[in-house]
Amino acid sequence: MTRSRQIALITGASGGIGLELARVFAEEGFDLVVVARRAAELEELARQCRDEFRARVDVYPSDLLAPGAVDELMHGLEKEGRTIDVLVNNAGLMEMGLFAEIEAEKHERLIQLNIAVLSALTRRFLPGMIERERGRILNVASTSAFQPVPAMATYAASKAFVLSFSEALSEELRGTGITVTALCPGFTKTDMLDRARDEHESAQSIPDFMVSDVGDVAREGFDACMSGTVVVVPGRPNQLLASSVGFYPRWLVRGVTGIFGRRAAR
Ligand SMILES: NC(=O)c1ccc[n+]([C@@H]2O[C@H](COP(=O)([O-])OP(=O)(O)OC[C@H]3O[C@@H](n4cnc5c(N)ncnc54)[C@H](OP(=O)(O)O)[C@@H]3O)[C@@H](O)[C@H]2O)c1
Predict the structure, then answer these.
(1) How far is the CA of 53 from the centre of ligand 1 (A)?
(2) How far, in Å, is the centroid of ligand 1 from the Cα of 163?
(3) For residue 23, is it within any domain?
(4) How far apart are CA 260 and CA 256, in angstroms?
(5) Are 231 and 182 in contact (CB under 8 A)?
(6) Residue 2 in domain
(7) Who's near 38: CB < 8 A, 6+ residues apart?
(8) What is the CATH number of the domain that holds 46?
(9) Which of 47, 98, 107, 220 lies 20 to 30 Å from 148, alpha-carbon distance?
(10) pLDDT (tens digit, 9 = 90+) per residue, 1-17?
(11) φ and ψ of 88, to 5 deg
(12) Atom 14 in ligand 1: which residue has the minimum CA distance?
């Protein structure tokens, strides 16, 4: 797969990990299609990527939770004749707190964006990739995908979906020229983490050494995507945690996460 002038579509590119991924893809010679609700942030990103990396950047301001948003995006791309070589499913929502105390609508929005939209976009772009016999998909999961996380039950379950889905697809697509990568960051310094720290006292005690730099996470995600690595966990502490989970019985993992989760929800 040559890198010059291929197109990467990145959801949630107006901030955080998505914005940094967009910058890395542009730096590495990709043109971009960037999607999120905040048009001004996308336009500023586009301006920077054009100036610094001479990338063509198409800005698609869109609320992916709005009915018909995925269809509209597809029609827009078709009209412009844009073929997507790399799909980056990054947009996501996180909610902290006890399940029964979080508004039902917030759970629904999270499930819709983290699972349904990611799956719908993959379903839309994959047939074209299969026809062209090349393509890459980078799905942003989380270290919370590796075990249940009480006080983040819906979020962690949604990321378990992303990880399982990505691994299954990567096997279905073996030998086709298409790769699927699940990027599983731990805590990363973005607005998502800042909001959690503002709203939940427990999130303030996350030690600095557990918080990854967003640029490092994006770079690792890009490299893994390009090399066709199926699962990537950025950062040594996160790798140790993610791999150690598999060594212990589920009841023990559940029990330990329960202690921390109940404390965090207080
Ligand atoms: N930060 C962490 O600690 C961490 C750890 C592990 C995994 N992750 C995952 O990494 C991904 C990015 O998270 P982040 O930390 O970069 O979060 P963030 O700073 O809150 O960024 C989220 C991005 O998603 C977009 N988005 C949210 N709702 C949307 C909607 N309805 N339609 C379109 N775009 C929407 C936002 O753009 P607009 O607001 O402009 O729409 C924004 O660009 C998520 O999937 C998250 O679960 C984050």
Answers:
(1) 24
(2) 17
(3) yes
(4) 7
(5) yes
(6) no
(7) 14, 15, 61
(8) 3.40.50.720
(9) 220
(10) 444 589 999 999 999 99
(11) -115, 105
(12) 16
How many domains is the chain built from?
A: 1
Annotated catalytic residue, options 30, 125, 155, 222: 155
CA distances from 94 to 33, 108, 136, 139 (A): 24, 12, 25, 16
Residue 200, in any domain of the structure: yes
- Locate all alpha helices (DSSP H) within the chain, ordered by sequence: 16-27, 39-53, 69-80, 104-111, 118-132, 153-172, 191-199, 214-227, 236-245, 250-265
| pLDDT score at 179 | 98
Give all strands of the β-sheet with 86-89 in edge-to-edge order.
57-61, 31-36, 7-11, 86-89, 135-140, 178-183, 231-232
Q: Please name the amino acid found at residue 263.
A: R
* Within a domain: 1: no
Rounded (5°) CA angle 116-117-122: 100
The token pair that represents 200 in the structure block: 């939940």
The tens digit of pLDDT for each residue in 182-235 reads: 999 999 999 999 898 888 888 888 888 899 999 999 999 999 999 999 999 999
Question: Residue 75 has which token pair?
Answer: 């029609």
Residue 251 CA to ligand 1 centre (angstroms): 31
